[in-house]
Amino acid sequence: MIALLVAVPLAFGFATVALPKLSRYILPLVTLFNLVLLIGFIHPVQVLEIGKWPAAYGIVLVLDSVNYPFLIFVNLVLFALSISAMFEDKLGVLLLVLTAALNGLLLTGDFFNSFVFLEIIAVVAYVLASQNKNYYAAFKYLIFGSVSGVLYLIGVVSLYVYAGTLNMAYIGFIASPEYVQVAGIMILIALLVELKILPLGLWAPDVYSNGSTVTPVALGSAVTVAIFYLFSRIFFNVLEPVKPLPVYILSLISVLFAQLAAMRQKTLGRALAYASIAGASTVMAALSSGALGVEKIASAAYLYLLNEAISMFILFTIYGYLNHKGFKNDSVAGIAFSLASISLIGFPLTAGFWAKINLLAALFEAGDYILPAVLLAATVIEAGYLIKWNVDLWYIDNDSQDEEREKTYLPFGAQVVVLLFALTLVIIGFMPDLITMHTDKIASHIFDFKTYFDTILKGGM
Amino acid sequence: MSKLVEFFMNLELIDWIFYLVGGLMVVFSIFAVEAKRIFDSVLALSAVSLLSVLLFIVLKAPDVAITEAAVGSGLASAVMIFALFRMKAGEKK
Amino acid sequence: MRRIWAILISVVFLHFFIGTYFPTLPEFGNIDMYRRVSFDYISKSTTTSYQPVEYKKSKGLEDGSANVVTSIVVNYRSFDTLGEVTVLFAAALGVGILANIKKRRIEFEEHKVLSVATGMIFPLILVFGTYVFVHGHLTPGGGFPGGTVIALGFLLLMLAKNEFKVTDAAKHTEQVAGSGYVLVGLIGMAVVGVFLANFLPTGTIGNLFSAGVVPIVYTLIGFKVGAELSSLVSDMREGDKV
Amino acid sequence: MIYYIAFVLIGIGLYGIVSQKNLFKQLVSLTIIDTAVNIFIVALGYLHGAEAPVYSSVTPLANFVDPLPQALVLTAIVISVGTLAVAAMLLVHIHEEYGSVDAEEIRAAKEVIE
């Protein structure tokens, strides 16, 4: 059953290549189908051995309590994207492929398979990044992404050499830890490039600020979340964590640098791009913090990631439609924008507040005081520029251009999606337990290798 | 000096092939990176690719060799040269 | 300045790999096959107990292709290959999206010798490409090189005949072959119960009609790759079609 | 030995990517890296005295090199050519947009536009 999550989008993607007009309508249907399948029919724990080959030989797909919430979220984002965004017909086919690849990446229990899906995502991302004539940025992204892909491949193949299999669970069981460290470094660097931690993520600002309604949302909210899942799966669940300290320091520097850079940007798009980098770096810093293996920190980090992804979805979508035109004509967009900024900063009664408070509390409990300090400083800077941009956009004066006024509305679908997401942030703000329940579950399972290994060992249905 | 001679005496055939082909590949790839004209560097690239086909055959990987010959040195070079033509077409205007 | 940085980065990189990474690897040519899953791929005994396989004699194995690489690519790790096909699909689609350049197409001067020679060679290339992917389970080769050979044939045709264009038929071939692959997987799901499972008898190893779904899948891949790559090259050449 | 060849080639490719200002050269360097990695991976499966992993009338019984790295490399080759095609198309567009594929000239052209 769980293979359908990959097979159905892929089949429709292949089938609509000659009639791309249809893909625009098929994309929401397929993602909706995936969501219905996930919520209604398939529940964790499920293991599928593709082609009926036993786990160590073939490829296994695993659905457990860790990736189940991630799957729902990613499909939800893609569904929302298919309604809210504006794209040419052929991009619809590409987004179907992206859906299949993201689902595959989240489900797979095999290292080489994850490489293949990462590359599909990468190729789709390069094309998405070139939207709005942003070719130079897309090319830079391609160079960064391909080199990181090569590193990932070398890492994966060396894991095969050490353990004799490509299955994640078996590698975690067989391979000797000191060897795994070396392969782990390569995989880690590759993932850090995709997660846009700063010196390695220099491609990101130009790509994210291309002003399209698809690129930053698909890359920032869907792909980044999926890759964070892959990171946690590989380094918390399967392999021994690679010496986390350098990554921790790198992420801290990345947070501060990105926030400072965001403050100095002259366009909203680039500011948001840097804010998005800062968000991803914060999550990375929390996940790799010195007190590794503390479930509370991981749980708070996932909540932070969720808040980040939803807020960035709203902000980038509105930026894509309105550019710098202000909210005078479209107060719905304005309200959603302000709510998202507030949640991103972490005002009380929003999701961001709980994300930051939980993270701070967990870090203090674990005795880590550096990240809280950085986080607070980053929050002050972030609050500064986000409030400035909000004020600018609310009070901007564009009455002089009457012809333009008609165009500065969001389409109805986008308004609904953006407003619903903003409401979600507020609802989480009032009832954080709705989400923390799930993030706690993820965190308690992600450090539990034995359960994962037993699941794989027991095999198929 | 005698060590060097000994070293070369003890080489088997497969090692000779590696040294020869590998050395050529390194030379060609340096040329591909540093060549003044882009066209030359594409040609050097396809030479590197063809030499790697030789290595794949020595390494007992006929499938990879066939695929690399068709995809790596055939199609990839064609794609690059087409891209070059496109740019040239733009420059003339 | 840039060069110094580049040399520095390369040296650090090589230092890490040669100093830290190489000691973890087994000596070249001296690997331990028994510790690897490939050992069972070769003897085709991942689900059964070990039994040596003999060419043209062993029957009814779990996988019937004489070419072990093919059996891995299309049977044991078929899901990877589905992903691989998808990468190529996404790339061809991306080139199609990016092809809207307002520039005239690349024109070639027609050459008498070339066009006559192409007229003779082109069918041979097609036959050779088809041979490569139909015999993918017996001899080295398979869907990817076979498809590429066909695409290269079309490239030759483009060079020889200036008017030649890859039409929408390629897109339809791609559509049918791609969906066909997923469909084969879904039929496996319906018959055996698992996605991409083999649902045909595997026959005697080494015969043309053996190996279950492998030849079918490789033929589909061959058509798909051929169509995709020819339309990719054509897209690069034609520019703005509208 | 062959490991060293492969990694020297990767090093050259990396050097090319960082040192060259011409984007086309960067793409060429990237392709060199891909080829080198493929050689390295196939070498990881080599076994002295073993045959190519195909059952045939010459080799009816199994004495084969490791076929799995070869299968992985098949996938990697196809993936790299897909990336290459997208990159080549992007380069054509960059040339269209800025009139050059040189990183510094593009930066200059960008500043003029802004």
UniProtKB/TrEMBL annotation, chain A:
Source domain of life is: Bacteria
Q: Residues in domain NADH:quinone oxidoreductase/Mrp antiporter transmembrane?
A: 110-381
Q: State the UniProt keywords alphabetically.
A: Cell membrane, Membrane, Transmembrane, Transmembrane helix
Q: What is its main location?
A: membrane
List the molecular function annotations (GO) for this entry: lyase activity
Membrane spanning residue stretches: 25-45, 66-87, 111-129, 141-162, 182-204, 216-239, 245-262, 271-294, 300-322, 334-357, 369-387, 408-431
One term under GO cellular component = plasma membrane
InterPro entries hit by this protein: CPA3_Na-H_Antiporter_D, ND/Mrp_TM
- Membrane-topology descriptor: Multi-pass membrane protein
According to its UniProt record, where is this protein located? Answer: Cell membrane; Membrane
PANTHER family, from UniProt? Answer: NA(+)_H(+) ANTIPORTER SUBUNIT D1 (PTHR42703:SF1), NADH DEHYDROGENASE (PTHR42703)
What family does the database annotate? Answer: Belongs to the CPA3 antiporters (TC 2.A.63) subunit D family.
Q: What protein name does the entry list? A: Formate hydrogenlyase subunit 3/multisubunit Na+/H+ antiporter, MnhD subunit
User: What organism is recorded for this protein?
Assistant: Fervidobacterium pennivorans (strain DSM 9078 / Ven5)
What high-level taxonomic lineage is stated for the organism? Answer: Bacteria, Thermotogati, Thermotogota, Thermotogae, Thermotogales
Automatic annotation (TrEMBL), chain B:
Topology relative to the lipid bilayer, per the entry, is:
Multi-pass membrane protein
Look up keyword Transmembrane helix and say if it applies.
yes
Which locations, inside or outside the cell, does it occupy? Cell membrane
Keyword vocabulary terms for this entry: Cell membrane, Membrane, Transmembrane, Transmembrane helix
Membrane-crossing segments per the record: 16-35, 42-59, 65-85
Instruction: List the GO cellular component terms.
Output: plasma membrane
Q: Where is the MrpA C-terminal/MbhD domain?
A: 24-88
InterPro entries reported for this sequence: MrpA_C/MbhD, Nuo/plastoQ_OxRdtase_6_NuoJ
| Main localization category | membrane
What is this protein called in UniProt? Answer: Subunit of the multisubunit Na+/H+ antiporter
Give the species. Fervidobacterium pennivorans (strain DSM 9078 / Ven5)
UniProtKB/TrEMBL annotation, chain C:
InterPro entries with a match to the protein in the record:
CPA3_antiporter_subunitB, MnhB, MrpA_C/MbhE
Q: Which domain of life is it from?
A: Bacteria
Stretches assigned to the Na+/H+ antiporter MnhB subunit-related protein domain: 113-229
Q: Which Pfam families match?
A: MbhE, MnhB
Origin species: Fervidobacterium pennivorans (strain DSM 9078 / Ven5)
Its family remark reads: Belongs to the CPA3 antiporters (TC 2.A.63) subunit B family.
Ranges that cross the membrane: 5-24, 81-101, 113-134, 140-160, 181-200, 206-227
Please provide the record's keywords in A-Z order: Cell membrane, Membrane, Transmembrane, Transmembrane helix
For the MrpA C-terminal/MbhE domain, which residue ranges apply? Answer: 38-97
* GO annotations of cellular component type: plasma membrane
Localization, UniProt: Cell membrane
Which protein is depicted?
Answer: Multisubunit Na+/H+ antiporter, MnhB subunit
Give the record's membrane topology.
Answer: Multi-pass membrane protein
UniProtKB/TrEMBL annotation, chain D:
Mainly localized where? membrane
Compartments where found: Cell membrane
Q: Which residues cross the membrane?
A: 27-48, 68-92
Q: To which protein family does this belong?
A: Belongs to the CPA3 antiporters (TC 2.A.63) subunit C family.
Keyword set includes Aminoacyl-tRNA synthetase: no
Domain of life of the organism encoding this protein = Bacteria
Mode of membrane association: Multi-pass membrane protein
Keywords of this protein's UniProt record, alphabetized?
Cell membrane, Membrane, Transmembrane, Transmembrane helix
What lineage is on file? Bacteria, Thermotogati, Thermotogota, Thermotogae, Thermotogales
GO cellular component, alphabetical, reads: plasma membrane
Q: Does the keyword Transmembrane helix apply?
A: yes
| Entry-linked PANTHER family | ANTIPORTER SUBUNIT MNHC2-RELATED
Q: What is this protein called?
A: Multisubunit Na+/H+ antiporter, MnhC subunit
| Pfam families to which the protein is assigned, alphabetical | Oxidored_q2 (PF00420)
Q: Which organism is it from?
A: Fervidobacterium pennivorans (strain DSM 9078 / Ven5)
